[in-house]
Amino acid sequence: MADTPSDVFFSTIGELSTRLRAKEFSCLELTRAFCDRLERTGPRYNALALSLREQALRQARDVDGELKRGRTRGPLQGIPFGAKDLLAVKKHPTTWGARPFAGQVFDRDAHVIEKLTATGAILIGKLSMIELAGGGDYRSAAASLTGPGLNPWDRTRRSGGSSSGSGAAVAAGLVGFALGSETSGSILTPSAFCGITGLRPTYGLVSRRGAMALSWTLDKIGPMCRSAEDCALVLQSIAGADPEDPGSAGRSFNYAPQFVRKPSELTIGYAPVDFEAWPAAEMRPGLQAALAGIKSLGVRLKEIELPPFPYGALVGTIIAGEAGSIFEDFIRSERVEQLADKTQIAGLKAMLDLPATDYLRAMRVRTLVQQAFRDLFVDCDMLLTPARMEVAPKVNEPLDGGGTPVFAAPRSQGLRELIPAGNLAGLPALSLPCGSANQLPIAISLVGRPFYENQLIGLGKLFQSQTDWHKRRPPEA
Amino acid sequence: MHTPGKIGRRTFGKELAAGTAALVLSEADGQVPQSSADADLRAARQSREQDSREIAQVPLPRSIEPAFRFKA
Predict the structure, then answer these.
(1) What is the mean pLDDT of each run of 10 residues along chain A (477 residues)?
(2) Does the active-site annotation cover A184?
(3) Would you state the pLDDT for residue A404?
(4) For B3-41, what is each residue's pLDDT tens digit?
(5) CB–CB of A411 and B4 under 8 A?
(6) Count of A–B CB contacts within 8 Å?
(7) Looking at CB atoms within 10 Å, which of A2, A47, A227, A422 has the fewest?
(8) Is B56 part of the contact surface with chain A (CB cutoff 8 Å)?
């Protein structure tokens, strides 16, 4: 594969698997081609934390041997992938995207890495991330050991955090798929900004053992891929009970498209204001077309609004309480000053001042949020909203706007706080590319009740059978 | 809990980080604002306190337990 056709790098897992089995190329050839591309192009987007070429090529030779002997292990066998650098890979640095942890090495793979390795998937690299997953309320895109995550669609724009490298690497065709993690938005945001399909699983469905803990009650690990079906294949491999993760729900996930309900049997909650007023003006035509596209599948749409809770404040307080405890020794040490983002340093220090009563009050209000979502899902099967209300921001733009003027907000809140709200309730979400605005990707997200992944993926797959936004490539790639 | 209307700069930044902000900010003129560590810490503490004040406004029956359980 000296001159690998570029379509290989943008193939779905199913396509790559078929071509491997048809012996169009060997696993070793495929892995070497992806490693070359990841090492050559990854730094262009600050997406690569660490190449794992040597162990990947060894594993690829093993897979070729298995395929030769007719031993098949499923669709992920032989597929090169990347993992966010908060996941432990034994004997290699796991930096959590942060300079103070640059030399950190674990002696055991994270649970999800073990699971994927067992399916024959080939880990070719660790992917960049916002330092400590941005838990300290970062502001700058440069809040990362590897520099600002750049968007393959426009390198003056952010790839989104905190799974910034995972988003960019999938979008630029540097890996077959990637793993990301989400505490509140870190899979959905880079997926939306980079034009890929990302799945945030139900809390507890995927073990976090071996992943950096930011918030015990909010952290999730999930796939970032080229299609909804790819997300299903990866989720199927990484989900499952794990006694070593106290948050494990003890459930597995079996992708079963035959059990997906017909669209005509589905009621989807949405808010018109989310498509007409809250998004940036240039995004509205694409988002409204996507809404019409979902409707044309035959679903019933029902207008709803999120119950009025201070979702952002709740997420911030819960992260502060839990991350403050997790990182207390680090925060009290001088090493915290080595972080790249000064705002994040201050945010981490301020966590130590949070009264226990404030944390517990937030967790009690969270119980009300969960009850409110249970009520919401009596009348709706899933919720639909733009994945983000803005396109990827400029890299040099601080998240607090640096003195940007205020703007008048619509009166209805719609579902615009569904990212923090859905994370508080532990709900699964699927981000689907649905258009572009100013040559940048835009996306919708579907959110379901807990353990509703099969239905979300089913509808996502149907939507992607009618559109080609998930197949589009960045101009440079 | 959320009053529609004007959104301030800091709130907007927090919402953007949390995935809830609505509009793209105007082009940045410069780099990340440099400020002293003390000012950053003061701002972070104020932000935490503001969050707590917002949460305190939610009516909360005494019988409601936190959204986690100790498992024996």
Answers:
(1) 82 97 97 98 98 98 96 96 98 98 98 98 98 91 95 97 97 98 98 98 98 98 98 98 96 96 97 96 98 98 97 98 98 97 96 98 98 97 97 86 57 94 98 97 98 98 98 90
(2) no
(3) 44
(4) 334 444 455 455 445 544 443 333 343 344 556 899 999
(5) yes
(6) 209
(7) A2
(8) yes
Residue A217 contacts B where some CB pair is shorter than 8 Å: yes
Q: How far apart are CA B66 and CA A474, in angstroms?
A: 45
Contact assessment for residue A46 and residue A172, using Cβ atoms and an 8 Å cutoff: no
Beta bridge partners of A82: A125, A178
Q: Identify the DSSP state of B16.
A: H
Residue A276: per-residue pLDDT: 96
pLDDT in tens, A140-174: 889 999 999 999 999 999 999 999 999 999 999 99
Question: Residue A298 is which amino acid?
Answer: G
In the residue annotation, A295 being an active-site residue is answered as: no
CA dist A116 and A13 (Å) reads 13
Q: Report helix, strand or coil for A63.
A: helix
pLDDT of residue B2: 38
Cβ neighbours of A190 (radius 10 Å):
36
Strand, helix or coil for residue A449: coil
- Over the stretch A275-317, which tens digit does the pLDDT of each residue have? 999 999 999 999 999 999 999 999 999 999 999 999 999 999 9
Which is catalytic among the residues A181, A186, A215, A227?
Answer: A186
Q: Print the SS3 string covering A182-194.
A: ECCCCCHHHHHHH
pLDDT tens digits, A9-57: 999 999 999 999 999 999 999 999 999 999 999 999 999 999 999 999 9
What is the token pair recorded at A373? 């979502």
**CB distance from B3 to chain A under 8 Å?**
no
| ipTM of model | 0.91
Q: Tokens 């859905």 correspond to what residue?
A: A422
Measured CA to CA, the distance from residue A86 to residue A229 in angstroms comes to 25
A84 is catalytic: yes
**8 A C-beta contact, residue A170 and residue A411:** no
Q: In what order do the strands lie in the sheet with A177-182?
A: A48-51, A122-127, A80-84, A177-182, A220-225, A197-200, A429-437, A440-448, A382-386, A267-270, A300-303
Interface of A with B in 35-94 (CB under 8 A): none
Judged by a CB distance cut-off of 8 A, whether residue B33 touches chain A is yes
Helix H or strand E encompassing A338 = none
Query: Angle at Cα B13 formed by Cα A96 and Cα A162, nearest 5°?
Result: 20
CB A185 within 8 A of CB A419: yes
Q: Which residues does residue A180 pair with via DSSP β-bridges, in sequence order?
A: A222
The CA–CA distances, whole Å, from A133 to A64, A138, A211, B21 equal 36, 9, 11, 19
Q: In A81-150, which residue ranges form alpha helices assigned H by DSSP?
A: 111-119
Q: What is the DSSP string of A265-303?
A: G-EEEE-HHHHHTSS-GGGHHHHHHHHHHHHHTTPEEEE
